[in-house]
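Can anyone check this?
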Amino acid sequence: MRRRAIVLSVLFALLLASAVTASALPPAQGATPTPFVEPAGCQRPPDDYTRLWVNGGQLNARTVAMLDHAQELYDALGGTEDLRLAITQGGYNAGGVAASFGTHDGGGAVDLSVRSHVDWSVLEDQIEPMIAALRVAGFAAWLRDTGDLYPDSPIHIHAIAIGDAELSGMARSQIDGTFGYLRGYDGLPRYDGVPVVDRHGGPAICQWMIDMGFTDMRDQPIPLPTPGGTALPVTALP
């Protein structure tokens, strides 16, 4: 437990430290923007922030609409799981799960199980279709594998709704901050201060995201936030 507490406190400290200069790090290695082609299935979500409870998690109606659209896209890819039933954590859960380091404090955040309801096995063949569908629906989404957050942390998909007006600062940083999705990274701060390239490929960019100021940032030096966004620091630990 002590080791887990240390890991979580370090992650939180990394997120809160002061910004470094734009020349400190180059753009994501091996991850550069491609000419804009809107993915099939892009659909702007409604601006509805009514709070709802879905499978034990609190989400706003905008996030639920995005999740339901992701379900349609996922089903078209041959998906077998119900994304609503896969919810393990929603948003508006300040302090509820320390390992989330604030990303679930506001709206727009959701964690999804990737385990079978029948035998608890990991649904290996469903992970990439889920993430692909979530991204086209407007989420910054990644697999958090076992041990990614702290020793033996459970495997799940973590998703943050792009453009959500009620995101916590920590959640917003996972979109366009130093370690963010739009920069081609996996959203997690690192002990050595060096972002890790997104294991699922580059971000899915829809025209509605561009209209809101969210673009492919993989060729931009760090930090350089989108309008009103965040650029969290890269700080190496001693």
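Reply from J.R.: I decoded it. Strands lie at 51-54, 57-60, 87-89, 109-112, 139-144, 156-161.
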